[in-house]
Amino acid sequence: MAQRTSGRLLGLTATASLMVALDATVVTTALARIRLDLSATMEQLEWTVNAYGLGFAVLLMTGAALGDRFGRRRMFVGGLGLFTLASAACAAAPGIGWLIAARAVQGCGSALVMPLAMALLSNGFPPERRARALGVFAGVTGLAVVAGPVVGGIVTEGLAWQWIFWLNVPIGLAVIPLVLRYVPESRGGGASFDLGGVLLVTGGALGLVWGLVRADGSGWDAFEVDGALAAGALLFAAFVAWELRVREPMVPMRLLRSRGFAAGNAAGLLMYAALYGSLFFMAQFLQTVLGAGPMTAGLQLVPWTATVTVIAPAAGALVNRVGARPLTAAGLALQGVGMVWIGLVAGPSTSYPELVAPMVVAGAGVSMAMPAAQTAVINSVAAREIGKASGVFNALRQLAAVLGVAVAAAVFTARGGYGTAETFSGGFGPALVLTGALSLAGAVAGLFLPGPDRTARTSPAPPVPRRAPEPSR
C-alpha cells in the first residue's frame, strides 16, 4: 500500500512538473506561426516567451512560502487550477496582448506548482528512497525543458499553435481531483507567514528578471535596465538583512552554512543558465543555418533530449551510493565539453551528423547533474524546511534561464546577427562556447559538495534548550 501511494505521488507530481516545464520552451518553435496569425512584432514575440519566465521566477519563493504556511497540497492544487485556466486563455487569445498577459498568469500558476511538487515528493519519500524518486522527477522535468521545441514543432505543424496550450486543459482537469484524493497534505515548520520576506524577495526577483529580460532590447547601458538591476540587488540585500532579524524567516540564512545547500544551488544556477542559453540558440541554428523546419528542428534535438529519460533516473539512484559531488561535477563537465564542441565546429558548412555526438555528450552530462544537484540541496535541510529549499532551488533555476539567454544573446549580437547563415554562425559559435564555460564553472562548484557520507545530512537546526534538572527532594 505504501509503495502504491508513493507511486501515485511520484506520478502526479511528475505530470504536473512536465506540464509547467514544457511550457517554458514549447512556444519557441511556434513563434513564426503566432507572428503571422496575431500580427506580432519581434519584441512582442520575445515577451510571449519572457512573460512566462517572469511570472515563474518572481513568485517561486512566494509559492513555496504559501505552501509551507497554508498547506502544500492546497496551494499546489490552486497553482494547477490557475495554470489550467491561463492555458485556456492562451489558446483562445484574440490578440498578442491577450496572449502575453495569459502567459504571465501561466507563469504565476507554475510558481506554485513546481516548488510544491518537489516539496510534496520529497516529504513523501524517506531519505533512502528520495534520491531515486527525485532522479525520476528531474528526468521528467529535464525532458520537458529540452523536448519543448520538439513538441511545439510537431503540434504546430500537425494541428495549430493554439493546441500547445489546449492540451494542458484536460491534463490539468484530470490531475487536480487525483491530487486531492491521493496526495497527503503537508506543511513546513513555523506558524507565521513572513510577509516582509515575501515582499522583498518578490520585488528583488522582479527587478533582476525585468532588467535581464529588457537588456537585449534596450541595451545593457539603458537606465531602465541598470535601474531595474540595481533595485533588484538592493531589495535582495534588504531581504537578507530582514531574514537575519525576523523570528521565523522565509529562508533561514543558516542554510547557507550547509555545503550541500550552497554548492548545490550554485551548481544548479550555472547548469540551467548553460542549458537554457544553449537550447535557445540551438533550435534557431538548425532552422536558420541548416534549413530545417520547426518540426524537423525539434526532432533533430532528440539525441540531446533522449539521454534525459535514460540517464537521469539512473543517476538519481546512484546519488546515495556515490554522493552528489562526482555526478554533479562530472555531469557539468561533460555538458561544458559538449557545448564548447558544438560552438567550435558549427558553421554554414556544418552537416547535422557532425552535431549528434556533442549533443549526446552534453545531454548525458546534464542528465547526470540534474538529479544530483537537486538531491544535494534537498537532503541538506531538515524535513520541515524542504519547501524552503525547493523554492530557493527552483527560483534560482528560473533566474538562471533568463540569465543564460540574456548573456548568450549579448555575445551573439556582439559577434553576429540574423542576416545570413554566415552572420548567424558568427554569433552562434561564441554564444555556445560561453554556455560551455558556464557549465564548466558549475562543475567547479560541484566539487565543493559534501561526499556521500554527508549528502543526506540535514542542515544545522537551532539548538533545543535543555530542560533544567528538577531539584532533589
Automatic annotation (TrEMBL):
GO terms for molecular function: transmembrane transporter activity. CDD domains: MFS_MMR_MDR_like. Residues 9-454 form the Major facilitator superfamily (MFS) profile domain. InterPro entries: EmrB-like, MFS, MFS_dom, MFS_trans_sf. It comes from the Bacteria. Its main location: membrane. The chain crosses the membrane at residues 48-67, 79-98, 104-121, 133-155, 161-183, 195-213, 225-242, 262-281, 301-320, 327-349, 355-378, 399-418, 430-449. This is EmrB/QacA subfamily drug resistance transporter. It comes from Actinomadura coerulea. The lineage of its organism: Bacteria, Bacillati, Actinomycetota, Actinomycetes, Streptosporangiales.
